Amino acid sequence: MNQVELLEQHIAELDDASFAKLRDWFMEFDQARWDKKLEADSNAGKLDFLINAALAEHEAGLTGDL
């Protein structure tokens, strides 16, 4: 049995309160990992194409006030 299968088995055995606590922790953990990845990609210039596209649309008059 690999690690994921073992985790799945243990998670399936949790009571409702423990599962809710794990779910909340995992959601926060996942969001923190996403934020770190997004920040790293941004710092590496991997998202510059989005900025450039938005600026080009704005300069072409294709944007409006929010």
The percentage helix is: over 70%
Average per-residue pLDDT, rounded, comes to 97
Count of alpha and pi helical runs? 3
Shape from CA axes? elongated
Give a written overview of the molecule:
The chain is an all-alpha fold and 66 residues long. The protein has one domain (3-59). Helices cover 76% and strands 0% of the residues. The protein is built from three helices and no strands. It starts with a helix and ends in a 7-residue tail after the last helix.
Set out the fold topology.
Elements: H1 3-12, H2 16-43, H3 48-59
Which properties best describe this structure?
mainly alpha; elongated; 66 residues; 3 helices
Short description:
76% of the residues lie in helices and 0% in strands. The chain has 66 residues and is an all-alpha fold.
